[in-house]
Amino acid sequence: MKEIFCIERFEQAEALLKPQRVEVLRQLARPRSCTEVGTALGQSPQRVYYHVKKLVDAGLAAQVDERRVRGIHEGVYQASAQSYWLSPRLVGTIGRRRVRDELSLGYLLNLLEDVQTDLAALDPAIDELATLAVSGEIRLPAGNRGEFLDDLRTTLQDLFARHGGAEGDAFRLAVACYPKENPDE
């Protein structure tokens, strides 16, 4: 099972974005038959199979085993990933995004789309992906965004100079700073 499945095609989005299918997919977090899923959801195995077939056809789930139950072959299915993301490229940017500079929302949105695409492309077969995530909250007085960005840029340039050699594994570093909707939460 992949960590992330990035939905790139409309057919995949259409197969997923139905409430009953999302519930079926949640049930397939571990391998299960349509009978088992139907029992958990209070639906017939045939109804569940209809949804499972749509998910399998879209690549969002897969048959992982088959067993014989009372003379009938019963498929065992599992979700293809733990998380499903709609690719920003699915719809694309409508109109022209306004990117004035590194302080603009358009620049941040472009960066986030790039990060999402990169994360979805990571190889889930690698047991221990060398990743690092840091999150925190800062409070900037009005008008200090530029000064903060300059300090951050200087700090990052120092890190790049000390650790940015031509050899070794390549990593992407993305830093995002945006207003928090409810700062007291």
From TrEMBL:
SUPFAM superfamilies in the cross-refs: Winged helix' DNA-binding domain
Matches recorded under Gene3D superfamilies: Winged helix-like DNA-binding domain superfamily/Winged helix DNA-binding domain
One Pfam family named in its UniProt record: HTH_20
Domain of life: Bacteria
Protein name, as recorded: Helix-turn-helix domain-containing protein
Taxonomic source organism: Actinomadura rugatobispora
